[in-house]
Design goal:
elongated, mainly alpha
């Protein structure tokens, strides 16, 4: 396995990864409360998909799959784009070779390439993504 001079050993890498993953389990409790709060938003999203399927000829599973793919690619590109400098990139690639990584998969290679291009670019704001078009056939959420 590749090793960097003065870098952590494979055992140290695994220890840090295991400790972080243990903390992820503790996050689950807080996540459940969050899920309760966003339930109305998710219900609205499901309603939009239902309308598209019933009135616009969309197929549910491919639509939901495409939405999930786009979300995951944005998340991966955003995370990778936060790496700063060649030292961060070298260490990130070192970790990937030690653990196996997204970059080992075809979709991951595309994400890595995209992240490198966007590294210093600002992304569209969440508000812009939420803004419906003036011609939207979907009714606005309750309370708007």
């Amino acid at each position: 396995m590749p090793e960097l001079a003065n870098g952590p050993s494979d055992e140290q890498i695994q220890e840090v990864i295991d400790a972080c993953e243990a903390q992820d389990k503790l996050i689950l409790h807080e996540h459940m409360e969050y899920m309760r709060r966003i339930q109305p938003i998710r219900a609205r999203r499901a309603e939009i998909i239902d309308i598209a399927v019933k009135t616009r000829g969309f197929r549910r599973t491919p639509l939901k799959t495409k939405l999930k793919e786009r979300s995951l690619l944005r998340k991966a590109a955003d995370a990778i784009a936060k790496l700063e400098g060649e030292d961060d990139w070298a260490f990130y690639e070192f970790l990937g070779k030690s653990l196996g990584s997204l970059a080992d998969l075809p979709l991951g290679r595309a994400t890595m390439s995209d992240a490198r291009k966007q590294r210093r670019d600002k992304r569209d704001s969440l508000a812009e993504l939420r803004r419906p078009s003036a011609e939207s056939a979907f009714p606005p959420p309750a309370g708007e």
